[in-house]
Amino acid sequence: MAEAAPTAPGEKPKGIDPHNVKHRGLIMASLMLAVIMQVLDTTIANVALPDMRADLGASRDTINWVLTSYIVAAAIVTPLSGWLANRFGRREIFMVSVVGFVIFSMLCGIAWSLDVMVIFRLMQGVFGAAIVPLAQNFMLDINPRERHGQAMAMFGAGIMLGPIIGPTLGGYLTEVMNWRWVFYINAPLGMIAIAGSALFLPETPKRKISFDFFGFAALAIGIGALQMMLDRGSDLDWFASREIWLELALAVSGFWIFLVWILGAKKPFLDPHMFLDRNLTMGLLFIFIVGIILLASLALLPPMLSGIFGYPTLTTGLVMSPRGVGAMIMMLLIGRLVKYVDLRILVVLGLSLTAYSLHMMSTFSPVMGPKWIIISGVIQGFGLGSVFVPISTLTFATLHPEYRGDGTALFSLLRNIGSSIGISIVTALLTHNIAVNHSEIVSAINPQNLQGLMSGSSALSKYGSEAGYYVLNSLASEQAAMISYLDDFRFMMWITLAAIPLVFFLRKPDYQGGSGSSPQAAPVSE
């Protein structure tokens, strides 16, 4: 079992000495299994929704609560993970989280009604919320600061792997077995992670700290309302719905009250002094942007490839999978380079590659083969891999270990919120642009040029005038959708390019020759 700094018999653990950790490789493997299991569940259930809907007797609208309940619960509980770890012990909270996540995953698999499924998914989100931030915290603590880049490379590979293989794995399990296996798949991963955690995870100090209920409640209301608004906005036509306006008001009020409260409270839920660390603040902004790009592009590609290119689910997954391979290859390479290359240069390289891949995607055509889809995906994987590892390292490079628990929780939260906002924005833009583009294309068709189009096309000439209109309208809809997808890719490209100047606000770690002050590396604060 990995040990904290040496203590006398009966004495409380003083913290983890990163230079004296036993079984470091086994600890990291156990942590990453848990991370992959949790991140996988953010996307693996999406493709199984139609089958769930049929089995559980749900409507098209209510089945989405299977996703919404998990996302909202995880978002609300994530900021709480730092306090829980300090109060009850990080090892204990991590193990309880993994055990609870596995149990409720199995219960989701045997759910017999929609109401029961939503309750189990909500609890799955509650227990899963702390897994990613606590795993990242452990990986930073058990490695010396000069090895943080390599640790974040492994951590990032797990974070990137889940969303990329989730839809493909979910589609395969649903097609070959049934939708219940998208939850049962967590059992073997979880059992190994639980065993490894029980055997090797080191103990950390516990602190009797008070709980700022008011601050947490305000933050929870803000986060929960925001996630509800983002998740349900597209179904309710956004601000044409009173529900969306109410959720927006709750989100703004919750965040505003939370901000005012933590600036004046004696012992706030999140210490505002942590945000004086420039790398933490800028790192949170960057991971928010990465969240937008990663899942927004992944949300657009499957419907585009299936609806316009005509790819079946498994083919879509195979065409998209090289993106994950590219990300993992680049992360492993970057993990080796972080000691020798200015991390800020790597971030600029990654953002540039990501922007270039999005530019390539903005030139897609329905008549092209899968070659350029794969190539652009690999380049985007290279880009995101080049960004994630340096940002994960830089964010905590100058942060005092006392704030690391809350910092990793916010890091995970901002990535997830960025993903939700990114998906909502590109989906809303896609819907709006399809309507506008379709209107413009159809308005150019009239009885005069319809006759010319039909006579010039052997495919259309066999139809009558009314049927010809129908065929042309279908073609116009497909063309409008394709143009709208390309507009979304171009929009994300400009967002990526706009983030590049922010890199120069980051400081280099001291082990790279930076001048910024850094905390002591060894023990976690007591």
Ranges where pLDDT stays below 50 over 5 or more residues in a row are 1-13, 514-526
Level of helix content? over 70%
Query: In angstroms, what is the radius of gyration?
Result: 24 Å
Class by helix and strand content? mainly alpha
Kindly state the mean pLDDT as a whole number? 80
Q: How many strands in all? A: 0
Give a written overview of the molecule.
With 526 residues, the chain is mainly α. Helix content is 70%, strand content 0%. The protein has 20 helices and no strands. The model is unreliable at 1-13 and 514-526 (pLDDT under 50).
Describe the secondary structure blueprint for this structure.
Elements: H1 24-40, H2 49-56, H3 65-77, H4 81-88, H5 90-109, H6 114-128, H7 131-141, H8 148-176, H9 181-184, H10 186-200, H11 213-232, H12 242-264, H13 278-307, H14 313-337, H15 343-361, H16 371-395, H17 404-443, H18 447-455, H19 458-461, H20 465-499
Primary descriptors:
disordered N terminus, mainly alpha, 70% helix, single chain
Summarize the structure.
By secondary structure, the protein is mainly alpha-helical.
